[in-house]
Design a protein that fits this description.
single chain; alpha+beta; four-stranded antiparallel beta sheet; two-stranded antiparallel ribbon; 28% strand; Amine oxidase; copper ion binding
């Protein structure tokens, strides 16, 4: 067998990530749903152990067929590895839901070579009562909200700071610090606290 370029346990390539994201986004029911998707994590969905053994036995040097389990009466081998899969954690801002998707990367070709990208959704599941890590866009939004807050602007002005471009607001997600979400009224609305740190650059 000829050695392959991607081992089943190799991290996803940039092209594979693009295919996975495009596949999930295209699966959105409406344009609003698709536009509200934020991709928190896109990683390899690790294959079964027998796929890894098959790769090491026939596709990657030093080629070790002895790694394959011997099953009496079973000799069939298709001659190719199954498609790689991606696992995506997606946050939908419109519905405030987290979902986990598995996408089969059926075909991944470089577009500049005249190829095409295609993936297939294997499964999707909404995970209730959880929140994703904060993303870069949310951190930027936090800074903008704080700088537009009149009491904050007034506090900066009292300190002689009128050019807020000299101020950096560093929002830090400090975890859950409110007992309200544990009550019956708030049990499905967990709250995240933010610790605001300001830096002034002259």
């Amino acid at each position: 067998m000829r050695a392959q370029s991607s081992h089943p346990l190799d991290p996803l390539s940039a092209a594979e990530i693009s295919v996975a994201v495009a596949t999930v986004r295209a699966a959105g029911s409406t344009p609003e749903v698709r536009d509200s998707m934020r991709f928190i994590e896109v990683i390899l969905s690790e294959p079964e152990k027998h796929v890894v053994a098959l790769a090491d036995a026939y596709f990657f040097p030093p080629f070790q067929p002895s790694l394959l389990p011997r099953t009496k009466g079973v000799t069939g081998f298709s001659g190719k590895l199954p498609p790689r899969c991606a696992r995506l954690i997606v946050y939908n801002r419109k519905s405030n839901e987290i979902s986990i998707w598995i996408v089969e990367l059926s075909e991944v070709h470089v577009a500049t070579r005249g190829g095409h990208h295609r993936g297939k959704v294997i499964s999707s599941q909404v995970v209730p009562d959880v929140q994703p890590p904060m993303g870069a866009v949310e951190y930027a939004e936090c800074e903008a909200v704080v700088k537009d807050f009149p009491p904050f602007r007034e506090a900066m002005k009292k300190r002689g700071i009128e050019d807020l471009d000299l101020v950096m607001v560093d929002p830090l997600c400090a975890g859950y610090h409110s007992n309200l979400w544990k009550t019956s009224t708030y049990e499905r609305v967990p709250k995240r606290s933010l610790l605001r740190i300001c830096r002034v650059y002259n």
